[in-house]
TrEMBL record:
Its EC number is 2.1.1.171. The keyword Cytoplasm does not apply. CDD domains: AdoMet_MTases. This is 16S rRNA (Guanine(966)-N(2))-methyltransferase RsmD. It comes from Prevotella illustrans. Pfam families: Cons_hypoth95 (PF03602). Gene3D superfamilies: Vaccinia Virus protein VP39 (3.40.50.150).
Amino acid sequence: MRIITGKYKGRHFDIPRAFKARPTTDFAKENIFNVMMGYLDFEGAEALDLFAGTGSISLELVSRGCRQVISVEADRDHANFIRRCFEKLNDQTDILIRGDVFKFIKACHRQFDFIFADPPYALEQLPQIPELILSKQLLKKDGVLVFEHGKQYDFSHIPGFVEHRVYGSVNFSIFQ
């Protein structure tokens, strides 16, 4: 796993083979971040990474200048991996929360400039996640939600939907 650009550009982190998480491919990550450049400036932004997995997106967000990133990950081993990655960078920008994403969303009273959600594709509640995030008003005015999902889903009917992007086998729905 590598950081694509920013102050930590080119840094690599080896993901343990036993991990269940599938990090967003570098190809998809690079392309969706290029698209995001037209929506917002990451410099000084506050971001939320839901289902953080390997921390690939959180690391990219911090590298691109986010003032603060909150990473929410339930799996203990994955959370420890994310923690170790930020320790290697000696960077305190990321706040790691090891816990259930749905409980976090329900209890969260903050708003963010950018939210990235990459749930496991087999997650039963996956189709409800964008509406849940948007109904809790976790986005600031002009904030952006990027939701990664499998190709079988169509979220274009949800208020706030802006566009759908496909990079290889990775699908992103973007909301504002």
